[in-house]
Amino acid sequence: MSLKSLLGSFKVFLAPMAGVTDYPFRQIARKFGHVIVCSEMIASRAVLEALKNNKVRRRLHFFDATREAPPVSLQLVGYDPYIMAEAAKFNEQLGASIIDINMGCPVKKVVNTEAGAALMKNELLAGKIIEAVAKAVSAPVTVKMRLGWDSKSINASTLAKIAESAGAQGVIVHGRTRAQFYEGKADWLEIRRVKESVSIPVIGNGDILSAADAKERLEASGVNTVMIGRGALGRPWICGEVQRRLDCDATVVSTYNGVVLQHLRLMIEEYGKERGVLMARKHLSWYSREMPGAAHFRNTVNSLRDYDELLRVTEEFFGLHGV
Ligand SMILES: Cc1cc2nc3c(=O)[nH]c(=O)nc-3n(C[C@H](O)[C@H](O)[C@H](O)COP(=O)(O)O)c2cc1C
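A: This is the predicted complex of the input protein with flavin mononucleotide.
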């Protein structure tokens, strides 16, 4: 299926976020509406190594189409066209609906290997990777990029054109440069320039925190879909809520009682009690951040290792006994 038909009526995409958008988070986000979700970024080399060692299930816990309804986009990071193509093929077989190539990760460890945002400085290699991946799979391929390496080398429109001619069916543009990391404001004028320079769908990303933000950015930039990242931390309902508001659904539910407990339970199911308790800490901190007593709650949560105790403290803090 083409990206255009896959996107269909989806106006909102949950951004890939390493350490956040795992299976439990994606399930919770989808409870609230019609949203496309994306896996955390996955190193292409790790996929192939796992395949070789036959440890696929354990290593690839990040995605399993047998338990997750489409559409799910799977994001790969890497620098070698052959390895990226092989990893993409494997993930398509596992059921990924979209293969997304990471060309935006700013982290040193990643850019030092010529992957992530470093590919924005190497358009030739970027094109080769996109072409190899697009040839290897029949699922649509997207490229997630930033505006450029820094303010002196803005090249998102050029890279988007390269992506289009190399066979990508869409691009996702985060309106910051690599040099900015997450500082400053996303530049939606530049995102609009990208939209105007290609005919494939463009998904715009950066600083969307509400339905009003999404509506304004969709109209002003002309992008097909918006992607939400940090706005979903502690608010996994935001994508579904924004989509419903854009669909003019006046019946949007704005109480999310109990979501935090559903999320906690899913994490324990996924990772077991011992690891799940540790992994839940950051989410509990995001859920509670605007509530009175959040700092004390966070300190307590960060000192606990016992699941039953964590559950009790969480129920008490959010007033959710018996939910
Ligand atoms: C904790 C965290 C993890 C992230 N991990 C990824 C990732 O794995 N792949 C990726 O392409 N972008 C990643 N990003 C970037 C987001 O997908 C998104 O582009 C960025 O946060 C800007 O959107 P926002 O303003 O809506 O947050 C991450 C961002 C955060 C905050």
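The domain at 3-246 is CATH 3.20.20.70 (TIM Barrel). The mean pLDDT is 92.
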